[in-house]
Amino acid sequence: MALQHLEPGEVIHLPSIPSERGATGTAALVKSDRFEAIHLVVPAGSSIPPHHVAGYMMLHCLEGRVILGPSGIELGAGDWVYLARGDQHSVQGVEDAKLLLTIMFDPPPVQ
What we know:
Layout: E1 27-31, E2 35-42, E3 47-51, E4 56-69, E5 73-76, E6 80-83, E7 89-104
Antiparallel strand pairs: 1-2, 2-7, 3-7, 4-5, 4-6, 4-7
């Protein structure tokens, strides 16, 4: 089943995302050609393996604690970090964590 994205102006309370949006509570909220917003749930002891994204990434820790590898950046509730386009990173759950991930993509070429 494809994830249901929000419509413009639709409000959602992040901690109450229904389980059908994603098995772990992780849910793609919005995806367009310019940006993507994802409510990311990272349980303690779990990890997201090293990877990179095509756009500029902003990660806001809403609750819990995670460590971003390989830099060792630790994020706790209320912390926010920006990563440049293509930066390799991983995410390790230290405590059960909820994060808001926003990826900004370069505009498509003008034709």
